[in-house]
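Sanity check. The docking grid for iron/sulfur cluster depends on where the pocket ends up, so I'm generating a full predicted complex first rather than guessing from homology. Inputs follow.
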Amino acid sequence: MFKKLVKWARVKSPWILHFNSGACNACDIEILASLMPHYDLERFGVMLKASPRHADVLICSGPVSKQIAPRLRRIYEQMPDPKFVVAVGACACSGGAFRGCYNVMGGIDSVVPVAAYVPGCPVKPEALIDGVAKLLGELNKESA
Amino acid sequence: MAESTIKIPVGPQHPFLKEPCKFEFEISGEEIRGAKIRMGYNHRGMEKACEDRNYYQCLYLLERICGICSHSHTTAYIQAVESLLGLELPKRGLYLRTLVCELERLHSHLLWLGVAAHEVGFDTLFMYTWRDRELVMNILEEISGNRVNYAINTVGGVRRDITAEQRKKILDLTKVVRERVAYYANIGTNEPSFMARIQGVGKMSTERAIEKCAVGPFARASNVDRDVRRDDPYAAYGDLEFKVITSDSCDILGRVVVRVLEMVESCKMIDQLLDKLPEGEIAVQKVPRRVPAGAAVSRYEAPRGEDVHYVRSNGTDKPERVKVRAPTLCNLEAAAESVVGSYVADIPIAIASIDPCFSCTDRTTVLLNDRRRGVRMATWEELRRHGVDWYRQNKGIRF
Ligand code: SF4
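Predicted complex below; grid placement will be based on this.
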């Protein structure tokens, strides 16, 4: 019963944390833009949080540069279970334009497990909203 | 007089631009006595990667140096390549390129104004500017096909022409933006709580700004009358009439005023560009793949200041060396100095006032020395809250 309640709360109002792992900023401003009045991700109950300890979903952009990899791992570890990572942008999915650069790991999934991939360089706010909505849909199915 | 100071490191977990940065502030009580910076944490190795991509591929890679001034980096790079090739660009191509430059400046300054307002706790203005920014983004998407990394430049011109219908839409846009900007100018200089947070904060004298090599709106707010668009005109700027905005208040208020008025100038330029838009080709038809050996430097006035690209060619289809000097690099040093003498609560707005691609703020970490709890970590968000609360309690500023 309690578990059900928690799951319901998580699906209805996921709290997200945004982390830039060496992205070019374009995806980050698009993430911000989708939280702004024009697109308004908040109407799905999505709320941006500042601390990993409060977050359910980690929205992560960037190809993961070598210096940032330990930080990303640490942030992931600080998040309470169950946690989901959304890789935002081509470079977060696979390294994108930076594939082969000597200082990048090439994708979020080379460091932490990823639940959803949103492609695009940069992602459009619409795509991001779609990605998050799909993730929530999956979670909902699980909880049923 | 010996005085005890405490060091608080900020960062380095803050990957903005190519230079995520670590600041170390020396404080005594609430006052900042010194600031140091260390850079190079989030190096991706793009300059090296350029060496095994050809000139066209580099174009798309360099566009991704920074997603906010992406057009700036490609234009700076491509101007260097075009001068090596000795290309004569068709006028229409140059005009369209300049058009995107100015649209980009509009969206970048709107973005900055929002972020600056957010840092001082004025979230209403943040929401307003970002709503208006969407109008500019829609136009950019319509003329280039992408919202952020437009990829409109190509060696020898631009890739897309604009239609009469789009032209009209852009003219409508500048009308709206002008109205909105007038409104922001009014708020920015009259709203007492906002003024109290920005007036006289983050002082940087003209002499120090020049000594510290500050560039762009940051330098112009310290009354340094420099603008590459006027001093060394590139693209279509030689044909345009515009004012270089400066301010002699030398503080954050000045930086707000300069950027807001620059938006008005950008609107003027966009109108002129569309008025005078010549007919003809938009790009050079035949561009050789191989670039003759040589080296070229190109300067460009990005929204954040002067951007310099250096390209050396060895006669093949790949550059031998590409070097980028982004404007934030020049401004950081000056920004670090400008916070000396102000309060810890002013750090967020003072650093944000140089516009260091701070759209991705939530990653900076501060170690505040708390006697009871030992060293405490504070995120950027907490620091911002601290700033807002501190001013509320001690100076009675509320929004
Ligand atoms: S996916 Fe593209 S736009 Fe997004 S951060 Fe990576 S390089 Fe930049």
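Relevant for the grid: The two ends of chain A are 12 Å apart (CA to CA).
Also worth noting: Chain A has a mean pLDDT of 81.
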